[in-house]
Amino acid sequence: MFKKRICLLVFLLFLSVSGITRLFRSEDIADREAYQRLMMVSTNENKKIICKAKQQRYNVTKHFLFTKGSDRLQMKLNSISSELELDQQEGKTELVEHFKDVHCIMQESFQVQPDNSLNQVIRQLDAHRATYHYKTEELFAEKAKLARFIAFGDQLDPIPKFIKPIMNGVATQVELSLTNHDMPLKAKGLQATFHDWRKE
Fold first, then answer.
1. Are residues 117 and 133 in the same domain?
2. Residues 158, 170 share a domain
3. Are residues 170 and 89 in the same domain?
4. Residue 102 sits in which domain range?
5. Would you say residue 199 lies in a domain?
């Protein structure tokens, strides 16, 4: 009974961390240190406790904030359902969320135009299934549809239908990282078509 209570408390702790700290994520040093302290306390106090818990969610929407150089960027993810899974044993803790029918858009960069207006490069990912690892801040998807757009402004809104992609394709496996700024997206088995609509 005691172990079940500890397990429940640990799971609630991670739900609050993932739902609040990770829902609106930033590279703020104080926030990151606070998150790491929570992870350390939870791990140190429960090294001998094996804890597994799952939570089903529906109509999931997540909004991530992250930085790349001096730019503050966003990623938005929608899914019809997900399963949040906590696995803690031998002092190691994993918090993973499995998504079903995922639609994800992510700002890649901003471009300043000659008239000082701002454009944004947006990546789009659609997949039947995807998995997000909270510890490494990585999203993995298989058999994903990918697209790349250039849109006006700096607000990450749903892409209007009149904006055509500059790239679209499919990949057997996709890895999307919020922390690897040098290579935020890796696509294996990518078959892509590139478009230059200015020539048409």
1. yes
2. yes
3. yes
4. 50-194
5. no
Kindly report the backbone phi and psi dihedral angles of residue 199, in degrees, each rounded to the nearest multiple of 5, phi listed first: -90, -5
Other beta carbons within 10 Å of 189: 12
The half-sphere exposure of 75 on its side-chain side, counting CA atoms within 13 A, is 27
- Strands (E) in the chain, as ranges, are 51-68, 71-89, 92-112, 118-133, 138-152, 167-177, 185-188, 191-194
Task: Provide the mean pLDDT of the chain.
Answer: 82
| 99/76 same-domain check | yes
Pick from 64, 107, 98, 106: nearest CA to 79? 98
- Which pLDDT tens digit goes with each residue over 123-171? 999 999 999 999 999 999 999 999 999 999 999 999 998 999 999 999 9
pLDDT of residue 32: 60
> Is residue 111 domain-shared with residue 171, that is, in the same domain?
yes
Q: For tokens 């429940």, name the residue.
A: 8
33 band by pLDDT with thresholds 50, 70 and 90: low
Please count the structural domains in the chain: 2
Strand 71-89 with 92-112, pairing = antiparallel
Asked if 24 and 79 sit in the same domain, the reply is no
In terms of Cβ atoms closer than 10 Å to its own Cβ (0-12, 13-18, 19+), residue 75 is: buried
pLDDT greater than 90 at residue 122: yes
Residues 164 and 112 in one domain: yes
